[in-house]
Design goal:
It is built from 17 helices and 24 strands. It is α/β, with parallel strands linked by helices. It is elongated and about 95 Å long. The N and C termini lie far apart (59 Å). InterPro entries: Aldolase_TIM, NAPRTase_C, NAPRTase_N, Nic_PRibTrfase-Fam, Nic_PRibTrfase_pncB, Nicotinate_pribotase-like_C.
């Protein structure tokens, strides 16, 4: 089958070329062979992909990874080289006909129903429902789980950092160098952007996904300069191009002296580090429109901030506006407040409009906890650059996505366990989100496929799937069906188009704003209710009793 068209064009393959039909566990092939050998491989099966528990001790998750799933199945075909390797990897007893079968398969007979990417989701609710021949769908299990697990985990981590930082702060993803390899780095940049981050330092992700790029310079750039005599060309052209300042270095030095002996700043600092000043001047000459300096190489308040201000004021004389500073060490709350006072004093003393609002960025192993502590302490930081704790999902290694058979040949199936949280919810289902009078989501409810949809203004009984006493009536003011068709194979069913990344990000932000604040809070959040209809509840427990073996007492 040719890859399906998306808005008139062919759906491209996965971003990562390693995502092929071989990106799966060996037992998927052994099961596929056993299905084929038994003549069961074409039996129509339904699988649910979902997770059992929200990550990071929270009560919500952001669903991500759907686009890569659809790109994968749209291009699902085995090459001869891949089939040869599968033949080598299985036992000699496998019949040749099986490999002929693999040669002919694609996902034309598969249907995928999914919650839109960027949606806030909850445990037990299917993120995807996959329908198709059981052998093929089984081969999709591992790559699907792989593509959604980390994507949803890191999007959720990003959303949690956005929640604690607040809407007004700029969030920058700086995690590439600490990410789990190139794929982890690329994926983190994409999914942090979905989760609410504003930009990334990752140039490859900027090219692949159109994510805004941000970056300044490192301590190495500052310490690579030994003094002002290293600046050979001292000139800088005015922004309007009308003339050139032939000695920008002297202009900076003049401003540094003015700051040092000004009424409001006299005595705060003495002689600044001149090699740092040389680095700042050199960087400003290279990027006069985007001069943002790392100010903690030597001493923030006695050297870095005064040197930055001297260069920024000299740039201002030539019509440019400096971008701000970055703090990468020390007491970030205290230093940001002191830097802000310094900027405000310059604005007042020298009459430079907006200088007091100079942008302050902070980095240095930041995470949810440290940002929360900074907020409680009080700070003047405008942007947070976050890396290691964000992209590695340091607080939780995996989401725990599962892929369970819920129906075969129109017969519902259930997976039982002594651990009730691991009991699956059988049959092909529909899922709805019910909203209350204030516009907040109240509860998600699963129903059997052929049950009537919940209706606005009509009372519906919502039951906990497994706990008999947990139940409540809900009169929804709005009803949203969650699962939509994103892959219809060769059927003529209407299919949703994949939205652009920016639209997914906007959806995520709007979804998070819709949630009730007590579900979102960092400490002791209120669990969101996930339920089943009365009919589905009865059926689950009927099937449970039917499938569970009856013990015998001797």
């Amino acid at each position: 089958m040719e890859a399906k068209k998306e808005n008139g064009g062919t759906i491209p393959g996965p971003t990562n070329p390693m995502v092929t039909p071989l990106l799966t566990d060996l037992y998927q092939f052994t099961m596929a062979y056993a299905y084929w050998k038994a003549g069961k491989h074409q039996e129509r099966a339904v699988f649910d992909l979902y997770f059992r528990k929200n990550p990071f001790g929270g009560e919500y998750t952001v669903f991500a990874g759907l686009e890569e799933v659809i790109r994968f199945i749209a291009n699902f075909r085995f090459t001869e080289e891949e089939i040869a390797f599968i033949r080598e990897s299985l036992t000699d007893s496998c019949e040749d006909g099986f490999f002929d079968y693999l040669r002919g398969i694609d996902c034309s007979d598969v249907e995928v129903y999914a919650i839109p990417e960027g949606t806030v989701v909850f445990p037990k609710i299917p993120l995807l429902r996959i329908e198709g021949p059981i052998a093929i769908v089984q081969l999709l299990e591992t790559p699907f789980v792989n593509l959604i697990n980390y994507a949803s985990l890191v999007s959720t981590n990003a959303a949690r950092h956005r929640n604690v930082a607040g809407k007004s702060k700029t969030l920058l993803e700086f995690g590439l160098r600490r990410a789990q390899g190139p794929d982890g780095g690329i994926g983190a940049s994409k999914y942090c952007y979905i989760g609410g981050f504003d930009a990334t330092s990752n140039v490859a992700a900027g090219k692949l996904f159109g994510i805004p790029l941000r970056g300044t310079h490192s301590h190495a750039f500052v310490s690579s300069y030994m003094g002002l005599d290293e600046i050979i060309d001292k000139s800088l052209r005015k922004k309007d191009g009308s003339s050139t300042c032939e000695d920008f270095v002297s202009l900076v030095q003049t401003w540094l002296s003015k700051i040092q002996w000004s009424n409001s700043l006299r005595g705060i600092f003495g002689e600044t580090n001149q090699s740092e000043l040389a680095a700042f001047i050199s960087y400003a000459q290279a990027f006069p429109n985007k001069f943002l300096a790392l100010v903690d190489t030597y001493d923030v308040m006695k050297s870095g901030v005064p040197n930055f201000c001297a260069v920024a004021l000299a740039l201002n004389d030539l019509g440019y506006k400096a971008g701000g500073i970055r703090l990468d060490s020390g007491d970030l709350a205290y230093l940001s407040c002191e830097a802000r006072k310094f900027f405000c004093a310059i604005e007042k003393e020298f009459g430079v409009p907006e200088f007091g609002k100079m942008f302050i960025t902070a980095s240095n192993d930041l995470n949810e906890e440290t940002i929360d502590a900074l907020n409680k302490h009080g700070h003047e930081i405008d942007a947070f650059g976050i890396g290691t704790y964000l992209v590695t999902c340091y607080a939780q290694a995996a989401l725990g996505v599962v892929f369970k058979l819920v129906e075969i040949n129109n017969q519902p199936r259930i997976k039982l366990s002594e651990d009730v949280s691991k009991v699956s919810i059988p049959c092909k289902k529909r899922s709805y989100r019910l909203y209350g009078k204030e516009g907040y989501p109240l509860v998600d409810i699963m129903t059997g496929e052929n049950e009537p949809s919940p209706k606005v203004g009509e009372r519906i009984l919502c039951r906990h799937p497994f706990q008999e006493s947990k139940r409540a009536y809900v009169v929804p003011q709005r009803v949203e069906e969650l699962l939509q068709c994103y892959w219809s194979g060769i059927s003529d069913k209407a299919r949703e188009n994949l939205p652009p990344l920016k639209a997914i990000r906007e959806r995520c932000i709007k979804q998070l704003e819709l949630m009730r604040p007590d579900h979102m809070r960092r400490l002791n959040p209120t669990p969101y209710k996930v339920s089943v209809s009365a009919n589905l509840y009865d059926f689950i427990h009927f099937l449970w009793l039917n499938e569970a073996p009856v013990g015998e007492l001797q």
